[in-house]
Amino acid sequence: MTSVPLEDPPAITTPTFWQNIGDFFVSAGWNVLTVVSIIIGAFLLVWILRFVIHRVVNRIVNGAKNKANVDDTQALERSPLASVRLVQRTRTLGSILSNIVNVTVVVIALLLIINILAPTALGSLTLLTAAVGAGLGFGAQNIVKDVLNGIFIVAEDQVGIGDVVDLGLATGIVEYVSVRVTHVRDVNGTLWYVRNGEITRIGNLSQGWSRVILDLSVATDSDIDEVERVMLDTAKGLAKDPKWRTRIIEQPEVWGLESISGDALVIRLVIKTRANAKDDVARELRMRLKHSIDEMGISLPSLTAVMPSGLEGAQRVRGANPPRTRPNPVAPAAEGAVWKPKRTAKKKTSPGDEPGSTPGGPS
User: Which of these, 287, 271, 266, lies nearest to 232 by C-alpha position?
Assistant: First the structure.
């Protein structure tokens, strides 16, 4: 009699199988819990950092508003330029820091999640990211250059929204500044998108002060001293005008005889103005000079405004080698407060009292 061998019980009924299943779900559960914790922690970290950045930005902006005694940001345009630029620079840097925080936290969270779900894949991912980084280093180096240049431009307050700038590539009013591009609208209305990495020099015409330079050409037989006197008096009259005196920073100066040609003598007049009022002051001064010279009976071959450049601009930007002009009278400052008695009204005389009469006189 032959015995039939018994079949092995199926694997699903063995304790080892169910133990492996349990270990798998426990491990998967812990991995899922860890991934969820990382995601929640990343969101909390981003929220905290963005909250801190927002609080710092608001603190600086509110401080500028309180210092300028205004309630809204638009009213800062009537306040000193430093307050406006502080608000612009602070908000721009705040948005840049927020973007950096978002990207950094997301990248770190992804690396931690990959390390938990596939620990062996992180080494391969490292090699892959090294290859991708090398490729991006050659292909996206212009983007990195643009971003780095943009960060320094904003941080160093080289340009701001509303500034009149000369970027070499474009000249006009800045309408938008970001870490990669700057938007400039020229006088014709064309909007130029200038990459920050292509900007090698910036000429800002809206920071600090500007100088109106007028060259007046008169006939060679004109009385130079008289012409200079009339020009200086006309410019001083403009500086004292209530409408224009807030736009003029310093007293006008006549820099003297600038050049001599065969048919004209060129005399230079300069006025230091606020940066955003240069063109308006120049137009008004030209009109007043034209009227003053016409009253003298002198014809004007040419009347132009010049913008020094190169070596000339470098010498004149700070008024280097200033010419000798007539001194402007300055009232001496009082050394101390002088007390004066209060003046009282004179006592009215009675109708019977006449000048010259004495009390107790003959009746």
Answer: 271
